[in-house]
Amino acid sequence: MAEEFPHYIEFRHVYKTFDKPVLVDSNFYVDSGQTVAIIGRSGVGKSVSLAHIMGFLKPDKGRVIVAHEDITDFSEAELNRVRRKVTMVFQNGALFDSLTVAENILFSLELREDYNAKNRDDVVDGLLHLVGISDARDAYPADLATGYRRAVAIARALAAEPQCILYDEPTTMVDPIMSDHLTLLMLRLKKQLNLTSVVVTHDLDLLHRVADAVIFLNKGNIAYFGPPAGLYQSDNPDINEFLELDKVIRGAPGAHSPFRSGLGGLAKDI
Questions:
Q1: Which of 87, 160, 168, 266 is close enough to 184 for a disulfide, judged by CB 3.0 to 4.6 Å?
Q2: pLDDT per residue over 230-242, tens digit each?
């Protein structure tokens, strides 16, 4: 399979239409261990792309490759097998409100075939330590700020020992310090675990710190696919307008610098 599909994730001429075209002849790839960011205005198909990677949506035309397999025509059972390798951290966290943080992580842990009940507490504590929120172990999701819930969702995703994590707007609606914490966490996972990842984001600070490549979606098309630095050499007026708007936003009072130290020991581990 790897010879036929050398990229870990790949879109080959993918089309998707709802009321209007959302993806039009979409082509990109993500190699193993890479982090690729998808950016663009709201409604251009960023989250729709993630849904195709997870198999929640099927393309109208084209092929979707995930984990070196063509999943386009996979059954739900076949998709569930792939989802053991590729997991998603949703923007709302998708946590179980009736379970504590530890119980949320344990729920994912128990789905593993190699799950060992004897060391479950050690594994849960280790995951919470890894994402830097050990103090939230016995809290309920409703009691946590948005950034903490995202960190819990990442810990729960890691419990399944995936090869790849998809992040949907991981730093949206979190305070600057927690945003840096999540960014440093994503860097740590990339370097220590060699995780492949796709990040949908509006946060260009996050993009420049974690992404090896960036996809700019615009009006259903991929207007740019390449290294982040190349965005700034683009002559595409929509890309330039997007970048200029980001400068205005980041220049506003209270906008945070990409060089904050983050929370506690995370920065020391990068």
A1: 266
A2: 999 999 999 999 8
